[in-house]
Amino acid sequence: MKRQNPKNSSKKSENNMNKNSGINTQPKQERILVVDDDEALLEILQKGLSLHGYSCEATRSAALALELIEKNSFDIMIADIIMPDMNGLKLTERVKRIRPEMTIVVITGHIEDFPYDRAIEAGASDFIKKPFTIKELLARIRYVKMQDELLMRERELKRRVQELEEFYDIAVGRELRMIELKKEIESLKKDKEGYKKA
User: Cα separation of 68 and 94, whole Å?
Assistant: First the structure.
């Protein structure tokens, strides 16, 4: 009779537990929305990003992009600046109002008309000048995601520090109030004893 390896059996039981409990052990696939009125570039970006493991949707319309973002949860948006129905910077501003946590990378071939600081002010995390390669775009996406995650962690830590400070202030305030009340009680006792003697 063939003996079963206990390590293999534990791995199998763990896999079965994950399947039965509905736990997804695979890393989350990030969703990207690409917005550009250039159909050829749109197709290249969609295929390139999909090949590198991203779930990628594409649209030539900024208005349609807003509809998609309102109904779906995307992690990243890559948007051209010059489009017929809406400027990419205006699109960025509107998207940030709907999904403030979304990472946005804007792209343009007209860098002299749209400087970097304007894109950042609109809410973009980064700015890429056309032409660029998929490799360059992937590097930028990884970089801005890392920066955004660090920023979110920093904000969360600041929020927690503020909560602790507020709690400390309340706790100290209560302690001081208790000391004052005890003093008032002791003073009242003395006054009562004085009245009795009188």
Answer: 13
- At 129, give phi and psi (nearest 5°): -90, 135
Q: Please give the structure tokens belonging to residue 161.
A: 């520090």
Apex CA 59: angle with CA 57 and CA 60, to 5°?
155
Is the peptide bond preceding residue 131 cis, with omega within 30 degrees of 0?
A: yes
Q: Does 91 score more than 80 pLDDT?
A: yes
SS3 content of the chain, % helix, strand, coil (to 5): 60, 15, 25
- Tens digits of residue pLDDT in 104-144: 999 988 777 777 888 889 999 898 988 899 999 999 999 98
Q: What is the pTM of this model?
A: 0.65
Token pair of 53, please?
Answer: 């493991």
- Residue located via tokens 């992009």: 65
CB contact at 8 A, 168 and 151: no
